[in-house]
Amino acid sequence: METNQAMVPHSLSARFEGSFAYLTVKDRLPTILTKVIDTIHRSKNKFFEEHGEEGVQAEKRAISFLSKLRNELQTDKPILALNDTMQDVEDWNQYMQRQQALLGDSEPISWFKSPWLYVECYMYRRIQEALKLNPPISNFDVFKEGKTQSFFDSQQAIISLCTYLQELIKTVDKISEKQLHENFLKLLQVSLWGNKCDLSISAGQENAQKTSPMETLHDLKCFILVDDSDMVWSTLMSLRGSGDQDKSRARVDVVLDNAGFELVTDLVFADFLITFGLAKEIRFHGKSIPWFVSDVTKHDFDWTIMQVMAANHKWMSMSGAHWKRYMKEGLWSYHDHPFWTLPHEFCDMPLDAPDLYSTLQASDLILFKGDLNYRKLTSDRDWEHTVRFEKALRGFQPAPLCSLRTLKANVQVGLQPGQGENLSVQNPNWMTSGKYAVVQFSSPHQKH
Ligand SMILES: [Mg+2]
């Protein structure tokens, strides 16, 4: 909502020279575009086999569109209206006008003058436009190769995680409350650190989980800057039937971030919640188009479950078989909504995607994975680190929610006085290195 515009800090933007936003727009985004162009180019033979000469022509046109896009970005040209036939075109073009109105009429909005959140989302949407405008290759996922690779590169970690899960499931009838709590914290943290495996921050460079995830948890604990895990736990416990494990009333929504190892950690955590009676239903939310290099689409979601099921490892394939059954029985479900791939701050959701907002209001707990969700939760603004998380949410409070995020962008709220300053001394890149993380909770029922 734009009503409090004057009350909130400015949006992070490439107009602040030397800032992380500036470096991202200047260096990282063009690198990603170059890789996309290369991927399309390398797929030329595939397009020819599938669509003949028409496929090759489409490949050429898409590449020339994207080269032009890269040039627009690098020379700070005006942001252009979208021009394809996807259903969100009107939303994007209205948002563009909104941004123009904020800047005033003196100059057109451009890549380095606009909010970073907006232009970064816009770049991914323009990549989609390049494909949508060239029909035979419209549905090509330029990031699929990297996502697939990151899954296979994490095989050992996935095996050890699935083995841990299946060993744990054997104890379901005799597990003590204390052990349940301990394992809840462990698997929540695995899902948290799974968020390190992000291909957009490394501009598509390999970024897989190579070590055993359970063994590193203890050493990583000191890098969790805010840890509200126990509020997540008590939220779920309060919805649990007394004494009877099967009676949880909790519906948990997981707003996913990345495919590859991270998605597996999310599925393992979700399996744990269902199996141990901490949730009765899990709804996963993913992207409807390829997004931020490694984000989960419906195809990635289904593919991952199939791959885990088809693995040549007893506990891994058993995990996959469980997950397929949860999907079939509706205990788990996958949803996408165009709002997740719009540039809007989440406080805009009640007005700009009221259907999604009311869906989320029916949830008992929403887990927001990753950095982009955090940036949208906090409107990607230059907040003081000590500002309360609730304040940075600017009224976005559909249900109890928790951000599970490793820090990869320079926005972080809810810290103790002095905490941010100390971190800056110890490690100047603390907000962008992915080394630190938060488990940050907020509830509309909370008393302040
Ligand atoms: Mg991502």
Automatic annotation (TrEMBL):
Highest taxon in the source lineage: Eukaryota
Transmembrane segments: none
SUPFAM superfamilies: AF1104-like
Damage-control phosphatase ARMT1-like metal-binding domain mapped to chain residues: 24-423
BP GO annotations: DNA damage response; methylation
Gene Ontology cellular component annotations, sorted alphabetically: nucleus
Needed co-factor(s): Mn(2+); Ni(2+)
Catalytic activity line of the entry: beta-D-fructose 6-phosphate = dihydroxyacetone + D-glyceraldehyde 3-phosphate; L-glutamyl-[protein] + S-adenosyl-L-methionine = [protein]-L-glutamate 5-O-methyl ester + S-adenosyl-L-homocysteine; beta-D-fructose 1-phosphate + H2O = D-fructose + phosphate
InterPro entries xref list: ARMT-1-like_metal-bd_sf, ARMT1, ARMT1-like_metal-bd
Pfam families (alphabetical): ARMT1-like_dom
GO MF entries: metal ion binding; phosphatase activity; protein carboxyl O-methyltransferase activity
Keywords from the named record: Hydrolase, Manganese, Metal-binding, Methyltransferase, Nickel, S-adenosyl-L-methionine, Transferase
Key word Metal-binding present: yes
EC number: 2.1.1.-, 3.1.3.-
Free-text comment about domains: Subfamily III proteins have a conserved RTxK motif about 40-50 residues from the C-terminus; the threonine may be replaced by serine or cysteine.
Function: Metal-dependent phosphatase that shows phosphatase activity against several substrates, including fructose-1-phosphate and fructose-6-phosphate. Its preference for fructose-1-phosphate, a strong glycating agent that causes DNA damage rather than a canonical yeast metabolite, suggests a damage-control function in hexose phosphate metabolism. Has also been shown to have O-methyltransferase activity that methylates glutamate residues of target proteins to form gamma-glutamyl methyl ester residues. Possibly methylates PCNA, suggesting it is involved in the DNA damage response.
Family named by the database record: Belongs to the damage-control phosphatase family. Sugar phosphate phosphatase III subfamily.
Listed name of the protein: Sugar phosphate phosphatase
